[in-house]
Design a protein that fits this description.
With 236 residues, this protein is an alpha/beta fold. It has helices at 15-23, 43-49, 60-70, 89-99, 116-132, 148-154, 165-174, 192-197, 199-213; strands spanning 2-8, 30-36, 53-56, 75-79, 104-111, 143-147, 179-189.
């Protein structure tokens, strides 16, 4: 069984698109857990409509950990709320995950509506570096598949990390298990972060984070990620 865990905060625009893409996967032996950070829009209503299990969340790391606590699957798939799965994503992921005997995995990512220049930029700046360095410097963003027993062994995501807790997580798992980038499928993502904050500012933040993490330490101060910053709704 596979448990899909999605941290949310005011995701009424993006969540139904993701949930519909999960529904089209045609996988029966799965559960979807939405870990919600007190959304003020229709996020919970949408999750209930699709039959999701709902638990309390917080920032992404806490949301993922909270979801994992109630997960029944032996494989966990953590997804950001604004991603979309192509047809066959789950079947291909599990097949390659098992064939390569992986303990944790992540994906190549491409924008849902990117042009050739933007897609090429993602390939050059993230996909190929992540693929080529998978054996010695794991990268994990937007989507992470991991064995539940390994997740429990390392204690889940570090909730004190300000940004790139997903990258740090896969590097922790890789110390006790096997990591890989799934090559048989990819994950479609939203460009909302880049559009709202600007491409230069966003890329600079990610680059600074990546350089700092080469030290082997997570980012616990200085650089931050504001959960909900990219949604239209804000907390009162």
């Amino acid at each position: 069984m596979i448990s899909i865990i999605i941290p949310t905060y005011n995701e009424e625009k993006y969540l139904p698109v993701l949930l519909e893409s999960i529904k089209k996967q045609g996988i029966k032996d799965l559960e979807i857990i939405v870990s919600d950070n007190k959304s003020t829009d229709r996020t919970i209503i949408i999750a209930e409509k699709y039959g999701c299990l709902i638990t309390s969340g917080g920032l992404p790391a806490k949301g993922r950990n909270q979801g994992a606590k109630i997960a029944k699957g032996d494989i966990l798939l953590f997804l950001d709320a604004d991603v979309v799965l192509p047809i066959g994503f789950i079947k291909k992921s599990i097949s390659e995950f098992n064939k390569r005997n992986l303990d944790v995995a992540s994906y190549k990512i491409l924008p849902k509506k990117g042009n050739k220049i933007v897609n090429g930029g993602f390939d050059v700046l993230y996909n190929w570096p992540a693929f080529l360095s998978q054996g010695f410097l794991p990268h994990g963003a937007m989507g992470i598949m991991v064995k539940k027993k390994i997740f429990d062994k390392i204690g889940g995501f570090n909730e004190k990390i300000k940004i790139a807790e997903d990258h740090y997580f896969v590097r922790q798992v890789a110390e006790v298990g096997k990591f890989g980038i799934i090559s048989s499928t990819k994950l479609f993502i939203s460009l909302r972060r880049f559009k709202k904050d600007g491409y230069t500012k966003t890329l600079s933040k990610y680059l600074a984070t990546s350089i700092y993490m080469l030290s082997g330490k997570p980012v616990k101060r200085g650089i931050s990620y504001n959960f909900g910053h990219y949604s239209n709704k804000k907390k009162n």
